[in-house]
Design goal:
The complex is a heterodimer. In chain A, about 40% of the residues lie in helices and about 15% in strands. By secondary structure, chain A is an alpha+beta fold. Chain A folds into five domains: about 70 residues, no CATH class; about 200 residues, Heat Shock Protein 90 (2-Layer Sandwich); about 55 residues, no CATH class; about 140 residues, Ribosomal Protein S5, domain 2; about 45 residues, no CATH class. By secondary structure, chain B is an alpha/beta fold. Chain B has two domains: about 150 residues, Arc Repressor Mutant, subunit A; about 220 residues, Dna Topoisomerase Vi A Subunit, Chain: A, domain 2. The chains are: A alpha+beta, B alpha/beta. At the A-B interface, helix 17 and helix 18 of A face helix 1 and helix 2 of B.
Chain lengths: ~575, ~375
């Protein structure tokens, strides 16, 4: 694998924006980048070279023998094969996690599809237990449906999707999740993915059985038939897989509960496996009829582009001049910026005019240009590409899902890390029936998708742990989450959420992101502290009042007994004393 | 044989008791009246309690006991103190009732009595004990002690044996009981919780106050009291207030000295002996009644460890701390040079010795040699 010239660093650099630049860079962000490349038709040059070598002069001794025998073993690896072997990269490490990941991928897809079509989502999740360790998961949505021809590719081919090539906030990104889940199901049970989809009331619903050919990363359709379906439009996907059904923090129940907090516009119906609670249906009605703002697609910001991507963009552009290249391919670049940039490159020893054709710029010059881009001042990226939940809706959602006394939320203004706009919001629910002496519940979201694993590695956890909660009247041990009857929901909305690893489970520790989370937490913390002190004051008042009511009569009784007062004298004494104390209390 | 008091004697005792009870009730009423008047004037009443701690005692050899100082803690009736205030007043009311019905209550009794008080009841006995101690301190300023308030301790007194006749009064009939402390065989007379009504008749020459029950047993069963003509009192650790009061009254009425015989360690010296002689900081308000200023320290002294070649144990950390603390903060030891020297010697040797260490020289060595030797030179006893 290491022999391949275009592997390694460069391939990884391409990841963020490669989709927009040229077709040949479609590849997984999730560590599969290197192998992904090999499966592409245009990239088989190394293989060709090997073939030539085999045709060369006969044996040249031992080394040549070894090379020959190695060559016979060297062959292409398909993405699907790679992931089949490295299933942990996609979140299929163990049976419990596999079941949850499958549900998660299907729900993400359903919500994304509905939102893109401007439909208020209604998603049904059903998990059936077929055997001790075998489950069938069904997720059904009321989305726009999928065109007949696309169905097999979407569910039976890795790295196929609509989201990877756009710079736009969405849940999924790579087009890898649901087909990987289907592949996992196939590998563990031999069952195909079953899909019913209908693209509109006037179209027929189609029923498919699709399996993925892991060698070729191609879908294979086993069944393709028209069926009767009661839904006017929507998609239903069923995957049979090996798994374990669990309760607790990493459970499907817990996951869906968190989904509805961050997606107040979605209705989710959940039917847990039989045996557990037979025939039970948990319905999470939507909290609002207001669909989230459809996020706009944006061009990359110059500060967020890596060198490798920049080179590809230079080569792939249709612009004839450097100026039009910069202005058309990037956001926030105008005449003034181009001028500043060329001055900057000139001071670095590179002379360019705005009219220089991009294709003429050598790799070395491009590097100078790229580093100059990083040095000059450019307006922050536009932020209408973000679609946060919003303070009001977050509070409403928490009110509906969490029983508490106090709710608040803070949505920060958009900020930028490495040229990528992002926005942090924090929702907080405190008090009520929650246990008071345990650690708080921290819900982490990236673009409204709950993150359930690797809590310790996440920037959200770090910012929460590092905040001095005692300033907000919440107890906290050193280096731990605060201990309080509290649920904290933190969401990061971004076109490109920086995850610490391919499995999309924890947000990386960018200083800008930590800073924004901290500010949002502080805002909520301050409001919480006001609430808590008011509550305490009220409780104190209440206690004092009941104290007075409770004990003053005994002073009356004792004085009556000792001094032989009459009942009237006693009552007067009690009344006077009550009055004196009540008055002094108010001062 | 019970013997009848003469009519005048009986009348005298009753008159004295009635007088004392009348004063107790008057004081309770005066305190309550003050509270009541404050309320009627719409101001907040308060109660002033002397501070009970070693930091609020003074000591002089002339007076001979720890005397409580002038520091007062004022408890004003506010929202926060209303509960204890109510409990204090109800406890005083209980005391008045006990005096009027000529009854008494132990600390535990008082705690259970409070269960009738509804919201004002005590949750556990430490709460009621504190309130009781406060009331006691409050009235001690007027020379009224807890027994006069009719609250008696649960703690038992020590054991007594020797040439002593105790006259006790039967509370029910007023008859006088005559108790001969030589006639308990291998047992002993047990000091009652209240000793005020006792009177004594003795020809003994001194009282020997002994720390451990084991040593008392030895001296009692071999009738050491007969040989040395003394009265033996077992303290079993820090003497209870009844034991202290008993020794004090006996010593005063018979005009005989008191010698203490305890372990040679900081606990024996600074807790047992010091409390016997001058009282304690926590109970400073009652020291004037409950200590024995005339007591002297017979042994075991640090010098005895050397003189009698006694087997020892090393001092523990708490022992060292206690000894240093006594040298630094205890007004009693600071007043007496010989004690400072003795404690410093003990610290320097770094060891302690128990009374029973004398058994190294034979079980009865203590009676045959040690005590007779020591008693030959009473002037050398530590103060």
């Amino acid at each position: 694998m290491t022999r391949e010239p275009a592997s390694g660093a460069e391939a990884q650099l391409e990841v963020p924006f490669s989709g927009r630049v040229e077709a040949g860079t479609r590849k997984a962000k999730r560590g599969g980048a290197k192998t992904g490349r090999r499966s592409e038709p245009g990239n088989d040059r190394p293989a060709a070279r090997k073939r030539r070598r085999r045709k060369g002069p006969a044996k040249r001794g031992q080394h040549a023998d070894v090379a020959e025998s190695m060559a016979s073993k060297q062959r292409e690896i398909s993405v699907s094969e790679f992931f089949a072997k490295n299933r942990h990269l996609l979140g299929f490490d163990n049976p419990a996690k596999a079941l949850l990941t499958t549900v998660k991928e299907a729900v993400d897809n359903a919500l994304d599809a509905c939102e893109e079509a401007g439909i208020l989502p209604e998603v049904l999740v059903r998990v059936e237990q077929l055997a001790e360790d075998r489950f069938r998961m069904i997720v059904e949505d009321n989305g726009p449906g999928i065109v007949h021809a696309q169905v097999p590719k979407i569910f039976g081919k890795l790295l196929y999707g609509s989201k990877f090539h756009t710079l736009k906030q969405s849940r999924g990104q790579q087009g890898i999740g649901i087909s990987a889940a289907g592949m996992y199901g196939l590998l563990t049970t031999g069952k195909p993915v079953e899909i019913i989809s209908r693209a509109g009331p006037r179209r027929a619903a189609n029923h498919f059985h699709v399996v993925i050919n892991t060698k070729k990363n191609l879908p294979q359709t086993l069944v393709d038939a028209e069926v009767e379906w009661e839904k006017p439009h929507g998609t239903q996907v069923a995957i049979t897989l090996q798994g374990t059904y669990k309760k607790g923090r990493h459970s499907i129940d817990g996951y869906l509960k968190q989904v509805v907090v961050a997606n107040p516009h979605a209705t989710i119906i959940y039917e847990p496996p039989n045996g557990d609670k037979a025939g039970e249906r948990i319905v999470y009605e939507r909290t609002t009829d207001q669909a989230p703002r459809e996020p706009r697609e944006i061009r990359p910001h110059p500060h967020g582009v890596e060198l490798g991507v920049f080179l590809k963009m230079l080569q792939g552009t249709s612009a004839r001049t450097v100026r039009s290249f910069l202005q058309e391919e990037f956001s926030r670049v105008g005449n003034k910026v181009v001028q500043n940039l060329l001055q900057e490159t000139e001071s670095a020893g590179l002379r360019l005019t705005p009219r220089t054709p991009p294709r003429r710029i050598s790799a070395e010059d491009a590097e100078v240009l790229h580093s100059a881009l990083g040095r000059i001042k450019i307006m922050a990226p536009s932020t209408d590409c973000l679609s946060p939940i919003g303070e009001d809706l977050l509070v409403k959602a928490l009110e509906k899902r969490v029983t508490a006394d106090f709710y608040t939320a803070a949505t920060r203004p958009p900020a930028v890390y490495r040229g990528n706009p992002f926005q942090i919001e924090v929702g907080l629910a405190y008090g009520g029936g929650m246990p008071g002496d345990t650690l708080i519940e921290l819900y982490r979201y990236a673009n409204r998708v709950p993150l359930q694993y690797q809590r310790g590695a996440c920037a959200m956890t770090k910012a929460t742990v590092e905040l001095p909660w005692r300033n907000y009247k919440i107890s906290q041990s050193r280096g731990a989450l605060p201990a309080a009857p509290m649920v904290l929901a933190i969401n990061i909305a971004s076109v490109w959420v920086p995850f610490t690893s391919e499995s999309k489970e924890a947000v990386a520790h960018y200083p800008e992101i930590l800073h924004e989370i901290r500010l949002a937490l502080q805002e909520c913390g301050r409001r919480l502290a006001v609430h808590i002190s008011r509550r305490r004051r009220e409780a104190d008042e209440e206690k004092k009042h009941s104290y007075i009511q409770k004990y003053i009569p005994h002073i009356g009784i004792a004085l009556q007994e000792i001094l032989g007062l009459s009942d009237r004298q006693r009552e007067r004494t009690v009344d006077t004393l009550t009055d004196v104390l009540e008055r002094s209390r108010k001062m | 044989m019970p013997k009848r008091m003469t009519k005048t004697q009986l009348a005298n005792t009753h008159r004295k008791n009635r007088e004392r009870d009348r004063r107790t009730v008057e004081l309770i009423q005066a305190t309550a009246k003050d509270v009541h008047e404050h309320i009627q004037k719409r101001s907040k009443p308060d109660l002033k309690f002397p501070v009970r701690a070693l930091s609020n005692v003074t000591y002089s050899t002339k007076r001979g006991y720890f005397e409580i100082g002038k520091q007062k803690k004022v408890r004003t009736l506010t929202v926060n103190t209303v509960k204890t205030f109510a409990q204090t007043l109800r406890m005083m009311s209980l005391s008045k009732e006990l005096v009027e019905t000529n009854d008494f209550a132990t600390k535990r009794d008082a705690y259970y009595q409070s269960k009738n008080w509804g919201a004002a009841m005590f949750q556990d006995q430490t709460e009621s004990d504190t309130v009781m101690d406060d009331i006691e301190a409050l009235f001690s300023v007027n020379a009224i002690n807890r027994e006069q308030l009719r609250f008696v301790p649960d703690e038992h007194g020590g054991a007594v044996a020797g040439e002593l006749v105790v006259f006790d009064t039967d509370l029910e009939t007023g008859a006088i009981e005559k108790i001969d402390c030589t006639r308990f065989g291998s047992g002993a007379y047990s000091i009652p919780t209240s000793v005020e009504q006792l009177s004594f008749e003795t020809k003994a020459k001194f009282i020997l106050a002994i720390e451990t029950g084991g040593m008392f047993q030895r001296l009692q069963s071999h009738k050491f009291w007969k040989k040395a003509s003394c009265i033996l009192v077992s303290m079993s650790g820090v003497p209870t207030r009844a034991t202290r009061r008993f020794i004090r009254r006996l010593s005063e009425s018979a005009r005989i000295p008191v010698y203490a015989f305890v372990d040679c360690d900081p606990y024996g010296i600074s807790n047992i002996y010091r409390t016997l002689k001058v009282g304690s900081g926590n109970a400073a308000h009652i020291n004037q009644f409950f200590c024995v200023p005339q007591a002297q320290f017979l042994g075991v002294t640090p010098q005895d460890i050397v003189d009698y070649k006694l087997p020892t144990h090393p001092l523990k950390e708490v022992d060292i701390k206690r000894a240093r603390d006594a040298l630094k903060n205890d007004p009693f030891f600071r007043q007496h040079r010989p004690w400072q020297k003795a404690l410093q010697m003990l610290l320097k040797m770094g060891v302690r010795a128990e009374q029973q260490a004398l058994a190294k020289w034979g079980l009865n060595y203590v009676m045959e040699e040690y005590l007779p030797n020591k008693l030959k030179n009473v002037r050398a006893f530590l103060p």
